[in-house]
Task: structure prediction
Amino acid sequence: TSTKLVFPSFKGLPLRFILVVPFVLQIFAAVGLTGYFSLRNGKQAVNDLANQLMYKHSELVDRHLDRYLTVPNQINQINIGAIELGLLDLQDLPIMGRYFWKQMQVYDVGYINYGDRDGRFIGIERLNNGKFLINEVPGKTSLEQAENSITYIYNADSKGHRTKLPETAKGNDHRFEHWYTD
Result:
């Protein structure tokens, strides 16, 4: 009679069902909690990994930018030193062109140039195919004559000498470009 009062709702249920259901519920609870914690910890691990990768790539970009922005300044300092020591004559554009070409062999930059207020200009340009062009404006022109200035564009051989004149450009005066006016 006491079992009738304690478990009146289980009356008529098979004993197998009464014994199996609590175990199945425990298994579902254990599997469900394990799945939930696994999913939560997996998301946290993925977020941690993503943060580490972003930090690593951010450091790589910072280092690359530091190197990229430091090299032109170093080239300028070397060139200023060569001018101050009298090793580089600003009036001798062919020698300056070869000197800049030699620097292009050492430094991975796209362009090294020099221009003065009289319109004289020399520059070495690295092309995408690895070859170099020498750009020169030898004559002195006033700002009013700037549109008539001619830039001579030469190929450079393996020693930095001019090999042939592939083209000329008219009206390209460096004195109106941002790098010069700044």
